[in-house]
Amino acid sequence: MMSKATATTVSGRTSDIVEQVPPPRAPAARKHMRNQFFTFRGNLSKHAQILTSVCASLIVIATWEISTRLGWINSLFLPPPSVTIETLWTMITQKHLLLNAGISTLRVWVAFAISVVMAVPIGIAMSSFRGVGAALEPIVDFIRYLPVPALVPLSIIWFGVGETTKIFLLWLGTFFQLVLLVADDMRRVPQEYVEIAYTVGARPRQMLTDVAFRAMLPSLFDNLRITLGWCWTYLIIAEIVAADNGLGFVIWAARRYMNTSEVMAGVVTIGLIGLLTDQILRLVHKRLFRYL
Amino acid sequence: MAPAPYLVFDGVAKYFGDLEVVAPTFDLAIKRNEFVVFLGPSGSGKTTLMRMVGGLETPTAGEIRLDGQPIDGPDRDRGMVFQSYSSFPWLTVAQNVAYGMKYRLDMTPERKQRRLAHYLELVGLADFADAYPNKVSGGMRQRIAIARTLAAGSDVLLMDEPFGALDAQRREDLQLELRRIQRQDAKTVIFVTHDVDEAVFLADRIIIFSKRPARMLEEIDIAATLGPDRTLELRDSERFFKLRTEILKFVRIAAGHEN
């Protein structure tokens, strides 16, 4: 805008007329979009949002690449993205990276499934029946605050270094968090819904399955999605401590030889799995809860 | 001989902790097929009295009997229209209305289908049958609740300001229709409102309440003056206006405006 104004004064009278012409639509639309960017809960088109996501990611990757290329950062400690991707490819083709990723994913899902199957009914019971809540809440709260790594030695003593230990640690890290989240989801179901069910003749069990559970589903789904992410944190801890396969093992083994690019490749793999899973689950959420 | 009372409040009082909501002791006998309107200031405990009939609250003292049986928890013989969260967001409009009949094993699917169509039409939601509640207005959501409760076919209807969110025309239609259904299907109705016009038009009997704690201030037999049949012409009649003015006076006293 500034340069345009200066140009007008320089070129004299004639351009005053040009200034009267209303600005073309495109810049106006662009200005509108720029405003929406920083408007609280503003409107941004789907395309603009995707474009922003891609640009932001590219900027981070480019900064990373440039700072290692220019030697600002020692690439021995932080290999550039190009090298990481190259290593990723060699690891896929020569070092069974995908197999290890598959093993890790399987561990996460098995442990997660066990947690969910236990946490959903117990969580619902905790918030539905005062007695169950009173009995379990202190125990759950106590265990919830124990850091999972602190329990690694115990679980190795109990279960050895096999699969059981890994599943146990993952379960430990997620079940006790999830059970409270589920209880909260149920607690937030409006009392009015429950009363509607009862006044049209639902029995308590019918009220629970037809109304209360149905009402809590969207927030339950969100909490499951978030908890699944935590699983990966505990998985890496479990695989670092006691495993001879899986992504945690791959990362930890590479560390021993100062092979930072393999460490990075392992980390990036986890990130990509996370990104993919989350996108899929978001899509499922959209499909399942069209009415929201 | 007068018919035996159907719904009886016997020495009822209600406290929430130290808060006195219904003053001891509340006594009222409602006949079968009677349309009773609870009229009074907001937050005066009328809703609590109605919720106790619904079995959603328990009296602190006394008891409420329906047909001689003490009320012990909610059931479908007493249908309720709620003011908020009145429909399930995960069901379509039609599914929400049909939910009222979900546990009626005594109705055939064909009969349920017919009733569904009838009540959707009645409340003017037939065109929105397949929409989800978040796509319709607040007034329409309220009509979903009314249709669901009517479809459920309860003998006693408990309605807490059910027409509050509706526009004047729809409100008038539904008032007429509710009164017609009440007469035709022999329903016993407790209707809470603070709209005097609505109260006079609908009621066989109006109970005027004080501010909290709820106490019965006045009892007015509307049926004695207006008779059982209510038409739109009645609304413009001399009798109607006289009653309305008289009741407004009581309501002002109840609200403490006339000293």
Can you tell me about this structure?
The complex is a heterodimer of chains A (292) and B (259). Chain A has 292 residues and is mostly helical. Chain A has three domains: 1-44, no CATH class; 50-78; 86-288, MetI-like fold (Orthogonal Bundle), CATH 1.10.3720. In chain A, 80% of the residues lie in helices and 0% in strands. Chain A has helices at 2-11, 14-20, 25-37, 46-69, 81-94, 97-128, 130-144, 152-159, 163-187, 191-199, 204-241, 247-256, 260-288. In chain A, helix 6 (97-128) packs parallel to helix 9, helix 8 (152-159) crosses helix 9 (163-187) and helix 11 (204-241) packs antiparallel against helix 13 (260-288). Chain A is flat, with a radius of gyration of 27 Å. The model of chain A is unreliable at 1-19 (pLDDT under 50). Chain B is of the alpha/beta class and 259 residues long. Chain B folds into two domains: 1-75 and 184-259, P-loop containing nucleotide triphosphate hydrolases (Rossmann fold, 3-Layer(aba) Sandwich), CATH 3.40.50.300; 78-153, no CATH class. Chain B is 35% helix and 24% strand. Chain B has helices at residues 46-54, 93-99, 109-122, 138-152, 168-184, 196-202, 223-226, 238-255, and strands at residues 7-16, 19-30, 35-39, 61-66, 69-70, 78-81, 156-160, 188-193, 205-209, 216-221. In chain B, strand 1 and strand 2 (19-30) form a beta hairpin. The mean pLDDT of chain B is 88. Chain A binds chain B through residues 190, 192-193, 195-196, 198-203, 206, 210-211, 214-215, 217, 289-292, and chain B through 54-56, 73-76, 78-80, 82, 84-86, 88-90, 99-104, 132-134, 145, 148-149, 152, 154.
